[in-house]
Amino acid sequence: MPTQHLCATAEPGRASCFAQRRTDIKQRLAKALAAAAPSGLSPANLHSAYNLPTTAGSGLTVGIVDAYNDPNAESDLATYRSTYGLSSCTKANGCFKQVSQTGSTTSLPTNDTGWAGEEMLDIDMVSAVCPNCNIILVEANSATMADLGTAENEAVTLGAKFVSNSWGGSESSSQTSDDTSYFKHPGVAITVSSGDSAYGAEYPATSQYVTAVGGTALTTSSNSRGWSESVWHTNTTEGTGSGCSAYDPKPSWQTDTGCTKRMEADVSAVADPATGVAVYDTYGGSGWAVYGGTSASSPIIASVYALAGTPGSSDYPAKYPYSHTSNLYDVTSGNNGSCSPSYFCTAGTGYDGPTGWGTPNGTAAFTSGSSTGNTVTVTNPGSQSTTTGSSVSLQIKATDSGGAALTYSASGLPTGLSINSSTGLISGTASTAGTYQVTVTAKDSTGASGSTSFTWTVGSGGGGCTSSQLLANPGFESGSTGWSATSGVIVNDSGEAAHGGSYYAWLDGYGSSHTDTLSQSVTIPAGCKATLTFYLHIDTSETTSSTAYDKVTVTVGSTTLATYSNLNHNSGYGQKTFDLSSLAGQTVTLKFNGVEDSSLQTSFVVDDTALTTS
To answer: What pLDDT does residue 79 have?
Structure first.
């Protein structure tokens, strides 16, 4: 997989940025380029993968420290945020500030196309993970430690309680002095990329005062999380860094026994360019591209710290994850080289060098633990209706701002129904007709709770049913009418053939990390037999006969009907049929969710849908 390293290898006494830009991404149709979603992981992908809240961070500032100037930073940031529906973040509204290492907004360093790409990766990732945060981009005059360190201090002086550094170089005997001069800022969460040169310690990731951030490969999965991660390691000279410092003393909160000094890393996040993030850069870049390197993981983690809230005034927040290891996704597979002891470079259960304690599962691991201030939000499922004798399956959805586990309870449920306290699934068979006022509550271990209320109507069973077709615009001939879909999904071009008419729904087919969705809400009348049918054509460039790289999942409400993959490719359309009679009396959402990995396209083409009752 070809990538461009945006900064040259650091000379002694200087730092290199770790950003990498992929050069192999191509869209499926040239004429669809403007409408198609950018390749690479989106803000929604990152929030899903790391179980992050979207409402935290307001009023907090994340600092980004880099070298040289990007003259297009503000305008490129505006494009990124508007593309993903994020609020405006500009100098005019006070959300974005771009300054020199001395705090000047007018006398900025020399422009540099390589570091400009690094800066866009950094500020785009802050926007993706903490869209409510303010951003200060502090640009050093050069890539020397003296200038970058001065910029570090300036970021803290300007009020940033979270500072990301996506750069570094080889260790040196002077680094403990640099620690004191530039990185000893109690009450500030400072994150540093662990490096992209595979196994081997780098500075300032090995500073005793910072959070060293390793890198993973992040891919979608059929597990309960929906994602899986392994150590990022492309080859012998490229992958996430790790190792035992030759100079920095071991902090009191770090307890691994194989390294007597500071061990790198502490935590990790996505960094592999093959599973990289979407970034927009026009100074040195040509617009949208997929970026990777531990340059991505550092601002992601800095922003998760911001979502978690302001650190304790005397704390070095690198210690926080060590007290909350159960609130991290443990990465247990992969390595970044050969080493002894093995955990220096090989992932395993618990702590290891390449990924630390793991990746974020909510924000709880990035708080001091003395006061979480968690909030619990329960999604209202809307009014429900069913008939006596009908089986029920309703999944209640709730989120905890700290990522803590939730316990569910419910009052006022129709007779015969109950809620699973661990999963929030309401199930059973309604036995008594009537109108019920239901309240569902979710509570976490800190005592935080949230509730929602809705009406549940249970009608008498029996009665006739009028035969009908319930889906609006079932063959897509009216474009997107009746459907909610990712941009570019409902089309009438010649790239694929329709089953009938000229329009159809085309999910994925980009040959890069991509997610497409297609959905419609529909009410199935009580007492009816209901049947869903649709035609599906799958073509793929994948050559394997054993691995499902690209998948489309078909769901109705909380029920998964089927999952198809590149292994199910066919030469034409095949009709799929499902019995939905158990959902009679409910309003549900029919959804097709297509997820494509980082290479070799698979196209999932849907046409002539129908949901008929009898």
So the answer is: 95
